[in-house]
Design a protein that fits this description.
- There is one protein chain.
- This protein is α/β, with parallel strands linked by helices.
- The chain has a single domain, classed as Glycerol-3-phosphate (1)-acyltransferase.
- The protein has nine helices and seven strands; from the N terminus they run H-E-E-H-H-E-H-H-E-H-E-H-E-H-E-H.
- Helix 1 packs across helix 2.
- The longest helix is centred in the C-terminal third of the chain and has 16 residues.
- It is globular, with a radius of gyration of 16 Å.
Length: about 200
């Protein structure tokens, strides 16, 4: 109930419009991967999903950011059910892939940002290898490219108070790792799929 109210508030505040261009909002296991320019990225993408899909979808987020205060911890745990991963001091014991694979093994979908960090320029950066390893471990899972437009203007890096601006969330065609496809080829194909949505 609280999660639904939070999602509605996020959509109303940003004027977010979900654009299902290459696929339909179907209740199947998927990994949504998107560009990253704002701390609100996963909130808006999560909120743009239909309720039945949102309930089975968990955003992947940085442990160091979402554990800085009790409010953030409560939001990450109770509202978003976020999969918190280590991004600064990665070891074998806290491998970021492990909690993501565990969530997928339980039949849940994920929201990820393959750039690893927020873009300061708005340009899509190079994708890190994590998305490839996820696809390799889950070859039957659909990977959905997503482009989030204008959200970096709602909450620019370094700002605390958001500014109401109309945003859009565009969902592209599903991707699967092809047999024998190399890491660099898959990463480039995935990145190109997100960029292509920017032009639609």
């Amino acid at each position: 109930m609280i999660g639904n109210a939070f999602a509605l508030a996020a959509r109303l505040f940003t004027g977010a419009q979900a654009r299902w261009i290459g696929c339909a909002p179907e209740p199947r296991q998927r990994v949504f991967f998107a560009n990253h320019t704002s701390n609100l990225d996963f909130v808006l993408l999560w909120a743009a999903l239909p309720r039945t899909i949102r309930q089975k979808t968990r955003p992947v987020a940085a442990h160091d950011y979402w554990t800085k205060s009790r409010i953030r911890i409560a939001l990450a745990d109770k509202i978003f059910r976020a999969v918190l991963i280590e991004r600064k001091r990665v070891t074998r014991g806290n491998n970021p892939l492990a909690p993501m694979l565990a969530a997928l093994a339980h039949g849940e979908s994920l929201i990820i940002f393959p750039e690893g960090g927020r873009s300061l320029t708005g340009e899509l950066g190079a994708f890190k290898s994590g998305i490839f390893h996820l696809a390799k471990a889950q070859p039957a899972t659909e990977f959905i490219p997503v482009f989030i437009d204008n959200l970096n203007r709602v909450l620019p890096k370094g700002e605390v108070l958001p500014i109401p601006i109309v945003c859009s969330v565009s969902f592209g065609a599903p991707m699967l790792l092809q047999p024998g496809e190399e890491k660099l080829a898959f990463l480039q194909r995935a990145r190109d799929a997100v960029i292509a949505l920017h032009a639609t």
